[in-house]
Structure formats: structure tokens, C-alpha cells
TrEMBL record:
Gene3D superfamilies: 3.40.1360.10, P-loop containing nucleotide triphosphate hydrolases. Residues 424-672 form the SF4 helicase domain. It comes from the Eukaryota. Residues 747-757 have a biased composition (Basic residues). It comes from Geodia barretti (Barrett's horny sponge). GO terms for biological process: mitochondrial DNA replication. One of its GO terms (cellular component) is mitochondrion. Residues 722-800 are annotated as: Disordered. Residues 766-781 have a biased composition (Basic and acidic residues). One of its GO terms (molecular function) is 5'-3' DNA helicase activity. This is Twinkle protein, mitochondrial. Coiled coil: none annotated.
Length: 800
């Protein structure tokens, strides 16, 4: 039977692990390749020019630690960041300069230069030990209950087409072995008849000339030896609102130097239940499949998911690795590992998002060696293999070189155009979940566009744009905020309220819980405040796009950024036009969406703003792809007007209602409750469900040993899945435990719901389902007659 949960098989922290970071204004290291070369030359370092890095013998490696390692240091060409894996030295370019000046060695390669930054040996060893201990506590696949095996196959889309071991899922098992463990003897020749699809049988021949063959090893392990030592499915705990929960996960090891250094874990489940984790939580990202790559391999396939990697490898036998965060990011930390390859195939899937990610990654990897693989317009390698494709090898052969030229022909664009036609929905961009009417007008948020956003002073521009960007960020759009008008602490506080849907000043005990969730968003802030030099802002943006794969940059606002004093000699309009042109260029060349807030010129307060009201010349609106205007209405209600939409021309008005407790304009929480009351089952397209926890629970969770659990898929959706798990497990509904805030005796929400029988039912049933605490909670927070007015407004927005 599968192993019971032990202390060693303990809880893990969900990924992507991202901290909210501030990119210090002006202090982002700016270095050119010329400068790096000059420093290396002047210090007499011998180096070669790699694809993404300069490669040199590490001057910091000491004999002991680097034994067996390659003593190779990589200096990133774009950032100047340095890495030497054997001695675990890593740092920024400025660190490197500091070490070099300290060493003052006439012959640095041979002298004893003090190692400056690496973590202590004990730290590194403890981290590796934790990973290996975790890895060894996995439960063998063949010992997992059949029901879990089926669930896992279904969840990961793995079609088992034969009764033997040669399905993709089984094959994946072999990736869990270290080279030492896999030194098994391979029989002279083994024939498998597998992957039957529609009557077609693919015969795979294994040759004895291969010292080690993954598939045969599994074959031997399973059928000759009868038992495997380690597998990759095991039991792990996740922290939930109700406490610890035991769930099945698949573990993907990241190897370095022949040993497991970290394990990525994916929860077995469908849709929003898919969660990721890393053990240990702290450490560098790695590549799945690295242990299968020989040091002299000259080509590699990079996929977005682990099972895609296995599928490609199975079908083509070409060295293949999977990225740590799929199509979301290519962390610079893994670039040195990929330096050895002269040819890199990027096979991230067939959709528009995958294509865009592949193009972005190709620029980071060095465009000249990159080839883009696309089997057809929508399928991943695994899906293709499941369909019985025997053409994965020819897809690799037909891979197109990455086009990074000024002149292209239609022939080169032909497939991309076809893919866009097939994936019209994806091309339209990421949809706002909180603002469906905005999605209806703009269709989505697309990379490479410039949005100009305006509204009168104090209308709520920052508040609204914050919620709009948060909505996208929760869906995985990596976001960089440049707030030149209000400090980052205030901005983050506002976003946290919008994220939790709570007035956290009244629920301080829940701060830890929500902060832990919020911290996992791919959200970054520039450290500028007040006027700033546009070139430093652009440099910071470029750095963030390279290092953090930023997809959305917000400049709030342009007038504050430009300031008055900076360009006294120049016409203000000219300065603004220049800045707008730079942002336009940045958006197009980097394929990043840039949103710029611009104040309007002073106009009569009674009249509505128009496109022509935007301060400056017509340049800003001409350059923009989208123009959004926040129109002030009566009381707390406002309108967001779309006055320009270059994508498909649809214009429109989005009704907004300001909710003071959560500083939101979307009415998300009310809409959520109403839907749960009216419709049964929310489905995949439901907006993220945020939930209320009681103060006591919040406090417990924020101090719990693994309270930093976080999600890969939109956080709200994951929390919702947790709620479902809870209620299905028959645990006490959360609403019953939620502590209502003290205060007002009014019941505005309940009253307004009572007007509509279906909504009233919903309010009641939502209590039973675990989120009704919010109704109790909010009734204490929403005060005065405005509250009841707000509530009926929101219901009407929902109805509309
Ligand atoms: N509809 C609203 N009703 C009441 N208060 C609001 C509304 N919208 C925003 N606020 C509040 O008004 C204040 C100013 O909002 P915000 O900073 O978003 O406006 P802004 O348009 O960006 O201002 P500025 O013109 O100074 O840039 C904030 O405290 C915000 O919470």
C-alpha cells in the first residue's frame, strides 16, 4: 500500500514563488556588453562569448567545492549577473565589480580570491538534503491506488494506449532516476509494441549501443526486476483553511551534478485544483530532465510542461527539458545551463500565448540558435502523441528558425497568421474577470499595445487602474507598476484590499493570511517616486522585462513622472510627446502592454471628458491602441468609457460602482455571491472566488508553519477549490465560523437580496457553502444609507 504520511513527507510551499519586489528606481544595474568585455579584459580573464552569457573560468571556485564541477562562471550579457554553479557564487554585476576590485589579483584564475556571496556550505547542504529527503519519501507509482493512477492520467491528459509500460505516463517515471541509479544493463534489443492508436501500432526499437536507455530501464524495472525503487507520485499535505489536507501530487525532480537539488510538485487534480509547489521552498529554478542531458549534447528541445518533455523525448529521443514555470517565465538563472547547446528547439505548444512566449524566450536565449516548433495550430506535444502522432520527429525537422529580421516574407509569417486565425480568442488577449463589460468592448488585454487612461483629478484613476491590473495579474500577467504619484506602500495596501475584498484595517488578524496569498502574484513595483528621468524608467522597465518576464507596465502618471523642473528649456508638450513615443516604441519592440495614465486638461466639471480632453497634443491618443476615460457620474457611480479600440473598433461604457471597504469598482464580491445563489455550479469561467476567513483563522494561518501556501493558477480559483474540497469532506462550513465584524446593525445586503427571491436563496445557500461569512462581515463594514444604495446599484450592475 502507499506510504502513510510522515513528518518527512511534509508540507510544501506552492509556486510560483514570487515576492513583491521593488525595483529600485535608477539602481537597476545598467551595463552593456562593451562594458563587461572591458572589465574582463582589463582583469585579464580569459572568456568566450556565449549565446546569452560570457563564459569564463570561475575565479572564486576553491578546489574542494568545485571538484567535479566545471569551474565555469557565466556573466549574463544583458544584466551582467554572474553565476558559478559549482561554487554557488551568484550576484549582480555590481557585486562582481566589488569582488574583482577586492581581489586585485595579478592572475585571478590561479590566486585564492575570497568567495564573497555564496550561501554557507551548511545552508546549501541542508537545502539539498531537504530535497533528497523529500524525494526519497515518495510513494511508488505501482503502490498508489488504482483510482489515484486513473485520476492522475486524466488530470494530466495522458492516454494509456497499451497494457504494458510504454505509455507516456510510465515513461515519465524513468526521469526520476539519477544517472547512477540508471546504470542498468539494457538487453541486446528490446521491442515494444505500444502506443496503439486507431489500430496503428508503433514499434520502438531499443539498441544495445545505448549505455542507458530510459524506456528500457523502466521496462526492466517493471517487468524484469518486478519493482521500482522510487517513483514520482506521492502523498503530500497542503495547508487549507480548515487545516491540513492530504492530496496526491506528482513530483518532478530538478537535478544538478547528478543529484536532486529541488523538487517541483504538482497536485493531481483538474482545472483550478492544479497547484504547484517547490521543495525546498527557497532556491534556484531548475530544468526537469536535466539529468538526462549529456554534457556534450549540442541540441535540446525546451517544452512548457514536464509531460510534454517526456512526450517529445519518447517520440524523438532528442534531449529535452521542461521549463520551471512553463510559458510564464524563463528565469535568467537557468540560462547558463542552456549555454552548451548550439541549437535550441522551443516547443511550448501551438497557441498564440505559447508562440508569444517562445519569441520572448528566443530573444533571451540568443535568437540565432533558436528554432520554433509547431506541430499544428493548437496542440501540445503530449496531446499530439496521445492522438497517435508519429510525426513528432518530422515536426522537429520542420522547426522554423526564429525570425528576428527587419524584412520578412509572407511565407515566413504564413503559419503564424494561420495560428492567429485558429486561435482568435487567444489573440484577443487576457480577459478581465472582474470587468466583463470591459472585456466585451476591448476583447482582452494584449501584449504590445499602448493604453492611455484619463479621468479628472481625484476621480479614482489610480484606484481603478489598480483593480484592472490586479485582475490581470491574478491570471498570471506579470505586472510592473510605476507609481510616481503615490508611494508603493499605499498602492500595495490598496491592492491588498482589492485582492481580499476586505477593509483590512478592521481585520488586522487576517493580514498575514491575505499577505501570504497576495505575495505570490507576479507583481513588481518600480522604486521611483515623483519626477524621474525617462531613460532610467525605460532601463528599469527593460531590466524587469528581461529578468521577470513582465507583460504589463503601468505608468501612473505621466505628468508626475515628467515633472516640471526637468525639462524647463523644452516645451511641455514636446517633452510629453517624446515620452509617449518612447513608451509606444517600448511596447511594440518588447511586446509588452504599457498603460499610461495622463491627466486631462482643465475643463468644465459638468461636461464629460472626450479623447480631445487629454493633456497635450493629439500625439498620445494617436500613438495609443486603446483610450480609456473614467467619467464621473453622480454619487459613487462612475463610468469607464472606451473611446478608442484599435484591435476591433468596438467602443462602449462600463458601469462602475465604488465599494469603499474594498476600494473596488467591479462589484466582484457581490456578483460572486449572487451567482452562487442563482446559478448552481460556477464552472471554469467564474471569476476568482475570494473567501472570507474569520479573524481567528486568519491569525492561525498567518503563523502556521506552512502558511505561505500559494497557487499557480489564479489564487482565488484555488481557494475556491479548497472550499469545495472542504464542503465535500463534510467539514463545518466556513460561514458558520466566520466572525461578523461588530458595528452597524443595518443589514443592507440582506435587505437588497430579499427583494429578489433567487438572490435571497443564494445568500442563504452561500452561507452553507463556506463564503457567506462575507455577507455577515460586510454588513458590519458598510455603513449608512449609502450602503443600501450601493447594494441595489451593484445588483443592477450584476443584472445588466
Ligand atoms: N467613486 C469614488 N467615490 C468615492 N471615493 C473614491 C471613488 N473613487 C476613488 N475614491 C477615493 O478617492 C481618492 C482618490 O482616488 P485616486 O487616487 O484613485 O484618484 P485619481 O484620479 O488617481 O487622483 P489623481 O487625480 O490625484 O491622480 C482615494 O482615496 C479613493 O479611495
Amino acid at each position: 500500500m502507499w506510504r502513510p504520511l510522515t513528518d518527512t513527507c511534509r508540507t510544501i510551499v506552492l509556486v510560483p514563488r514570487r515576492a513583491l519586489r521593488t525595483l529600485e528606481g535608477g539602481s537597476v544595474p545598467h551595463v552593456t556588453q562593451k562594458q563587461i568585455r572591458a572589465v574582463l579584459d582589463s582583469n585579464k580573464y580569459k572568456y568566450s562569448v556565449g549565446h546569452a552569457s560570457f563564459v569564463l573560468q570561475c575565479p572564486f571556485c576553491d578546489g574542494q567545492r568545485s571538484s567535479g564541477g566545471r569551474r565555469t562562471m557565466f556573466v549574463n550579457k544583458t544584466t551582467g549577473g554572474v553565476v558559478c554553479k559549482p561554487c554557488d557564487v551568484r550576484g549582480a554585476w555590481t557585486d562582481f565589480l566589488g569582488w574583482v576590485s577586492k581581489s586585485k589579483a595579478p592572475n585571478p584564475a590561479s590566486s585564492k580570491v575570497p568567495r564573497v556571496v555564496p550561501p554557507s556550505d551548511t545552508q546549501q547542504l541542508a537545502s539539498r538534503r531537504a530535497a533528497q529527503q523529500f524525494w526519497s519519501s515518495t510513494t511508488p507509482w505501482e503502490e498508489t491506488p488504482a483510482i489515484i493512477q486513473d485520476q492522475a492520467r486524466r488530470a494530466f491528459g495522458i492516454k494509456v494506449s497499451c497494457g504494458l509500460c510504454y505509455c507516456v505516463f510510465c515513461v515519465a517515471v524513468r526521469w526520476s532516476f539519477s544517472p547512477a541509479e540508471t546504470a542498468a544493463k539494457v538487453p541486446e534489443e528490446v521491442h515494444h509494441s505500444h502506443c496503439q492508436d486507431g489500430g496503428e501500432v508503433t514499434h520502438v526499437k531499443q539498441h544495445s549501443s545505448r549505455a542507458y536507455d530510459p524506456w528500457c530501464y523502466y521496462y526492466l524495472g517493471m517487468h524484469t526486476c518486478g519493482k521500482l525503487k522510487k517513483e514520482f507520485v506521492f502523498l503530500v499535505q497542503f495547508h487549507t483553511v480548515s487545516g491540513r489536507e492530504e492530496v496526491w501530487c506528482v513530483a518532478y525532480p530538478w537535478y544538478e551534478g547528478g543529484e536532486v537539488v529541488r523538487v517541483k510538485v504538482e497536485r493531481v487534480g483538474e482545472g483550478p485544483q492544479r497547484q504547484l509547489a517547490l521543495e525546498p521552498a527557497e532556491g534556484s529554478p531548475g530544468l526537469f530532465g536535466w539529468n538526462t542531458i549529456s554534457s556534450d549534447a549540442k541540441e535540446v528541445v525546451i517544452t512548457g510542461s514536464e509531460f510534454d518533455a517526456v512526450a517529445v523525448h519518447q517520440a524523438t529521443q532528442v534531449p529535452t527539458v521542461a521549463l520551471p514555470s512553463g510559458t510564464l517565465a524563463l528565469p535568467p538563472e537557468v540560462l547558463p545551463q542552456l549555454e552548451q547547446f548550439e541549437k535550441v528547439y522551443l516547443w511550448l505548444g501551438g497557441g498564440t500565448t505559447a508562440r508569444q512566449a517562445a519569441s520572448h524566450f528566443a530573444r533571451k536565449l540568443g535568437p540565432n540558435r533558436c528554432h520554433l516548433v509547431c506541430l499544428d495550430s493548437s496542440s501540445s506535444p503530449l496531446a499530439a502523441l496521445n492522438r497517435g502522432h508519429t510525426h513528432l520527429m518530422s515536426a522537429l525537422k520542420n522547426a522554423k528558425p526564429f525570425v528576428n529580421k527587419q524584412i520578412v516574407t509572407f511565407q515566413q509569417l504564413r503559419e503564424e497568421v494561420y495560428s492567429e486565425l485558429c486561435n482568435a480568442n487567444q489573440v484577443a488577449g487576457v480577459k478581465w474577470q472582474r470587468f466583463p463589460k470591459l472585456t466585451q468592448a476591448l476583447k482582452g488585454h494584449r501584449p504590445g499595445e499602448l493604453t492611455v487612461f484619463t479621468g479628472v483629478t481625484g476621480a479614482g484613476k489610480t484606484t481603478l487602474i489598480s483593480e484592472l491590473s490586479l485582475d490581470l495579474c491574478q491570471q498570471g500577467v506579470a505586472t510592473l507598476w510605476g507609481s510616481f504619484e503615490i508611494r508603493n506602500v499605499r498602492l500595495a495596501k490598496m491592492m491588498l484590499k482589492q485582492f481580499s475584498g476586505l477593509n483590512l484595517e478592521r481585520h488586522l488578524k487576517q493580514y498575514g493570511y491575505w499577505a501570504n496569498q497576495f505575495q505570490q502574484l507576479p507583481l513588481y513595483f518600480m522604486g521611483f517616486y515623483g519626477a524621474a528621468d525617462i531613460s532610467s524608467v525605460l532601463e528599469t522597465m527593460a531590466h524587469a522585462v528581461y529578468v521577470y518576464d513582465i507583460q504589463h507596465v503601468i505608468i501612473d502618471n505621466l505628468q508626475f513622472m515628467l515633472g516640471a523642473s526637468h525639462h524647463a528649456s523644452l516645451d511641455r508638450y514636446a517633452v510629453q510627446n517624446m515620452a509617449v513615443a518612447e513608451f509606444r516604441k517600448f511596447a511594440s519592440s518588447r511586446n509588452v502592454h504599457v498603460t499610461v495614465v495622463i491627466h486631462p486638461r482643465k475643463e468644465s466639471e459638468s461636461s464629460e471628458l472626450t479623447t480631445a480632453s487629454i493633456f497635450g497634443t493629439a500625439k498620445a491618443t494617436q500613438e495609443a491602441d486603446n483610450v480609456l476615460i473614467l467619467q464621473s457620474g453622480h454619487g459613487s457611480s462612475k463610468l469607464l468609457q472606451v473611446t478608442k479600440n484599435r484591435f476591433d473598433g468596438d467602443l462602449g461604457r462600463v458601469p462602475l460602482v465604488f465599494e469603499k471597504n474594498s476600494l473596488t469598482f467591479s462589484g466582484l464580491h457581490l456578483r460572486q455571491r449572487k451567482r452562487e445563489g442563482v446559478a448552481s455550479g460556477s464552472g471554469d469561467h467564474a471569476p476568482p472566488a475570494l473567501r472570507v476567513v474569520s479573524d481567528t483563522e486568519g491569525a492561525q494561518m498567518s503563523h502556521a508553519p506552512f502558511s505561505e501556501s500559494h497557487t499557480h493558477t489564479p489564487i482565488g480559483a484555488t481557494l475556491k477549490s479548497v472550499a469545495e474540497t472542504e464542503s465535500s469532506a463534510g467539514s463545518r462550513p466556513l460561514a458558520a465560523r466566520a466572525v461578523p465584524a461588530s458595528g452597524s446593525k443595518q443589514k443592507p445586503f440582506r435587505r437588497s437580496f430579499r427583494k429578489k427571491p433567487s438572490a435571497a436563496v443564494g445568500a442563504k445557500s452561500s452561507e452553507g457553502r463556506g463564503d457567506g461569512g462575507r455577507a455577515e462581515d460586510e454588513k458590519g463594514e458598510t455603513s449608512g444609507s449609502k450602503a443600501s444604495e450601493l447594494c441595489s446599484d451593484c445588483v443592477s450592475v450584476v443584472n445588466s
